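User: Sorry, folds how?
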Amino acid sequence: MKLALYLPNFRDKVTVKELEDLTSLAEELDFDSVWTLDRIVVPEASDRAELQHSFGMMDEFPKALPVSSRGQWYQGWPLIPWLAAKTTKVRIGMSITDTPYRAPGVLAAEIATVDHLSNGRVNVGVGAGWMPEEFAAASASHIFPKRHTHVRETIEIMQGIWTNDLFEYHGEFADFPVCGFGAKPVQKPHPPIFFSGLKDPKRAANRVAKYNLAGWIGIQDTPDELQQWRGAISRELDERGKSIDDLEVSSMIWFVITDEETDQTPRGKATNLLAGTAAQITDTLKRYKEVGLTMPLLWPPFQDVPVSKTLDDLKRLKEEIMPKVDAG
């Protein structure tokens, strides 16, 4: 099982030094990758729990974000080239890039450049987004009803630009003649693409299988939920003569080691999955391993857990917990 760190760039208050310290430790502990979070805005309506949809369109959560509209968070994408310069081994990516906020051709060309800056260490996570208010702030309201089509076109354009000397595309959201887009990525045939689909297993499975993507990223998936997602994706891959064993199966999961045991009663995505004592986390990771989670994205809580605590927890995870998980 690989380990990945989900940087807390999205919280009410975090410093660049704290993000740097977390990244440095992840590299020191031989983590597979470090990821940032994509959040353009927090609507003021979120502070009153009056968003149009619950967080991530998931029923278990309120119509609010866990960060204040007055919070001082950092945008995820500008951190990527900075992370490339700050590291030498760990892979880097943003989970996930909401494609409707970006022009596909520009995004593809920029990622290719960052792949050179990082010497071929970029992961690419893509998804459709879920918050109409954020679409409006990104001047993309017209895309919201067709956001899944935008993701599909973005994947096709990225793969086309990255694998052809010249490329043209004629779609609904991008329409351009034969063009060159500069340097091709270091990674061949191109950087690994991860798809994040949180509501519809069949759609997510179809995207992963159709475009031969490298991985799938969920959020707060229980072992039972993960098994269901993995099964749906596996069936789609089998129909195309491909294997689920070649896919990185990941989930963004809140992580903190506590002194006292936490309530592990199943509450869907609100369950304390990797928030508990070292023994509880060990047991949960063993179950994840059994059902095929290949890479948890460890997500520090949004509040009440200082970065100094997360640094200590990551060391304990690597030195105390993972040897027991790996031993079975």
